[in-house]
Amino acid sequence: MDMYIGRLSALIPLIACAVSAYGQDCRIIQNLEIDGKDYSTANLISADGKYVIGEKHIGLGKYGARWSQERGLELVTPLYDDFTEIHAISDDGMVLVGSSEFPGGSRAIRWTAEGGTENLGLLEGATYSRGIHASSDGSVIIGRCNFAGTADVAYRWTREDGMQPLPDLGGSRMYATRITPDGRVITGYGRNASNAYRAFIWTEEDGLQDLGALDATPPTPTAISDDGSTIIGTWGSSGTKGFRWTVQHGMQDLAQVVGAQNIAVGYALSADGSVIVGRHHAGVTWRAFRWSLADGLQALHTQDSYAFDVSANGSVVVGMTSGTGFRWSANRGYEELPRTWPGFMHQSVATTITPDGKTIAGRMVNPAKTYTMCVWHDTTADFDGSGFVDTDDFTAYVQAFEAGADNADFDRSGFVDTDDFSAFVTAFEAGC
Q1: Would 231 disulfide with which of 52, 162, 245, 389, CB 3.0-4.6 Å?
Q2: Residue 26 — very low, low, confident or very high, per pLDDT cuts 50/70/90?
Q3: What is this structure's pTM?
Q4: Cα 332–337–342 angle (5° rounding)?
Q5: Residue 364, class by beta-carbon neighbours within 10 Å (0-12 exposed, 13-18 middle, 19+ buried)?
Q6: Residue 299 Cα distances to 167, 285, 294, angstroms
Q7: What contacts 188, CB < 8 A, 6 or more positions away?
Q8: Is the pLDDT confidence value at 18 over 50?
Q9: Per residue in 357-400, pLDDT tens?
């Protein structure tokens, strides 16, 4: 093996071609279950793409589910009855956060493969709780507790302190919706003493800050930048409009920020908050967009479309156009994602992407006309992410292969072997 690798390393200076265009489809699709008996979909993915999280319907029951190449499909065991849902995943895929049915009302849960489903309990006097989001290591969890329909209280949970209520804005409703990866900044919305909805931000150091609102409807945060300085969310009737809040500019109508013709709704942010993706109403249709201060508003397709997620650096966007999942990047533009079962009825949706932009998860309609959770792997030979396929990529891949690095598993088999090197060389030669 070492001799084989040494010979490959010696070939690097002889690789003379530098390819600037992609010559073939660089993506492979993997259906995570194809029996077609039950509905399943993928909504979340671990940072390294090894774990895909979603839900699976079995009969009348709905279960949170985690899939990996090594362990296959694992169901999140309910605390009671036959219902669990998952809303958050730690970066390493080891911790899942959500809710489960329980006598008298649902309970917030924390799940690990080793420990199973853990009941996070209730605030004193509450009737049910829900787990909504978590820090990147799964150690800080946020959500809400309901008190017999009369009040909602946002909470923060840690192993050390358990479930603790967040301060309120003076009214009877508080909902925590997002938390930064480091667990330091929490955002959400609630009612103030005048019963008016306001967005908020909370830190242990500075306490609760009222972020305001754009009208009487709830301003609901849906994404927050890693440092907590940028928040996007929805407002308006049924959440049909979007807002952006920044430390510098406060709360603004997202349409005005991005320069949309009518309405704009943001669904995801880059890690630093400089790139927003979502959809905007362009007179007749909704169009997927990517916006940054540097590039302005970019419509990703002319047809009815959505942009659901973006890579950490803002360079890769995923979503759906007229029933077909897509991937967009600055260097390759708009690309429809491949489908296992082509055809008008066999729709697909790309819902989430890893921070490095290499792995996409979502769902696809199978021949039985039910959704199947699936994952797309980007197998481009642009190994260093420069936007070009050249000898630097070959060098970088050989070094990773020699080290047995996880990212050298080019064919996504779960281990690194000569099949990976062959797959990489095939893609490299094709200028993929």
Answers
A1: 245
A2: low
A3: 0.87
A4: 140
A5: buried
A6: 40, 12, 15
A7: 142, 154, 174, 175, 176, 177, 178, 199, 200, 221
A8: no
A9: 989 999 988 777 778 888 888 767 887 767 678 888 889 989 99
